[in-house]
Amino acid sequence: MTSARPAAAPLARYDQLFIDGAFVAPEDGSLVESIDPATGRPWAVVAFGGRRDVDKAVAAARAALAGPWGRMPGHERAALLRRFADLYKAQARELAILETRDSGRALRESLADVGGHSNAYHWWASLADKAAGRTIPFDDSVHAFTSRVPVGVVGAITPWNVPLMAACWKLGPALAAGCTVVLKPAEQTPVTSLELGRLFAAAGFPPGVVNIVPGTGKDGAGEYLVAHPDVDKIAFTGEGATAKTILRAGAETMKRFTFELGGKSPHILFADADLEQALNAATNSAWTLCGQSCALGSRVLVQRPVYDQVVAAFAARAGRVRVGPPLDEATHMGPQAHAEQLAKTLSYIETGTAEGAQLVTGGHRLAGPEHAGGYFVAPTVFAGVSNAMRIAREEIFGPVAALIPFDDEEEAIAIANDTAYGLTAGLWTSDVGRAHRVASRIRAGMVWVNTYRFIRWSTPYGGFKASGWGRENGIEALDSYLETRTTIVST
Ligand code: NAD
């Protein structure tokens, strides 16, 4: 008897870790199936590292610091990074497809995002010989000067929503500064990070400079990395609760930290704004990455005279979002990246309704033939939201926009700042004075005026308050991978 069901494709195999310049089987880790969020079925087998694997990776990273990499002048590190950036560019489409396979992010978004990383690596290469110290005037009895030296071995721990971007934001400055790295991608989306190993090897990086060890956080590679006495810094992107656990665990060995955490960003639309453009940005930002971005303008603050108009436009635009197979380039929005996130989003939608917000559109899992088994959610819009509601205070990480009305500048600023977070904010107005007045009073690490989600390698990015510590991107990021050594020479 023949079956109408197509035979399942064999699982892709990413069953080795990248340690000390080579792909190796895990010693005490495991092999785990990675789930395709568009179908809910496994699509790949991935190696997760255990404690011995992390020990090996950290030892390789430490040894590399003492080897040729540690003595390499900045311009030679720059040349290696440039070669890597070129290989990355040549591979960008394949990387974007893999990123979409693993995370469910719509391919058109993956292409746009991954397409920019090569430029970022080039920019970091241009800074690899610029970490200069200074001389300190004293008197003739001493010569005092500072040197900027790499912080050492970096444990880079990344989230599942933007694996390649988060890796780029850490690897770029860490390598420019002369550090070595053990990269631990999120357990849900480890594949593209492992692919980077091939590119680092092909670019000619000495063994051990970059090591890639997927695994779980708790009771796995993440926890072992944080506790490891030979890791000098943890560069972490993820949730605030995880950051606190890491901070406590890393305190034992007095590590350095940078934390890029969550957000609940206000996106303020004044009635005098170019509403067409503002709506484009506000709706795009609500559905980007299926709502799984730390920078989403998930609280849309709308001035009352245009509130009803904006609610109606949001609903109409939500209806035009093509939600479907993420590898189809016509798709705007893919599924949520994993089952747990799907459940979280649906539960917040129930919360919003129970809190008395008005569900304007969406609010359910999609179940069409092109969605079968996948973690798809309809773009969802809540109106009549008060900033006291949980859907306005907590990070949902799904395609859920909460539209909050306000009367004037003072109220907009008060609502915008009434949050535990402080990552990003956006405001739209045609009044230049108002733009500056409001922007200067918002407690967030990034404020966009008449644009949204414009982020470049050169613009520092990071949070106030519960959104994090330190900055990624910009020369500020380079700084966070350097120590200052002061030398005083008696003359
Ligand atoms: P998460 O905190 O659950 O996991 C992030 C990483 O930490 C994963 O690699 C995980 O395995 C690891 N981890 C978990 N527990 C650990 C432990 N005890 N010790 C060491 N490592 C551990 O976060 P997530 O759910 O993967 O990502 C979503 C979060 O990331 C959201 O809050 C989002 O806003 C945030 N984020 C922030 C930025 C930013 O730049 N600010 C960017 C992307 C995502």
UniProtKB/TrEMBL annotation:
Domain Aldehyde dehydrogenase: 24-486
Catalytic residues (UniProt): 260
InterPro entries: Ald_DH/histidinol_DH, Ald_DH_C, Ald_DH_CS_GLU, Ald_DH_N, Aldehyde_DH_dom
Keyword Oxidoreductase: yes
Residues passing through the membrane, by range: none
UniProt GO MF annotations: oxidoreductase activity, acting on the aldehyde or oxo group of donors, NAD or NADP as acceptor
Keywords, comma-separated and alphabetical: Oxidation, Oxidoreductase
Keyword tRNA-binding included in the entry's annotation: no
Domain of life, source organism: Bacteria
Family note: Belongs to the aldehyde dehydrogenase family.
Protein name: Aldehyde dehydrogenase (NAD+)
Species for this entry: Aquabacter spiritensis
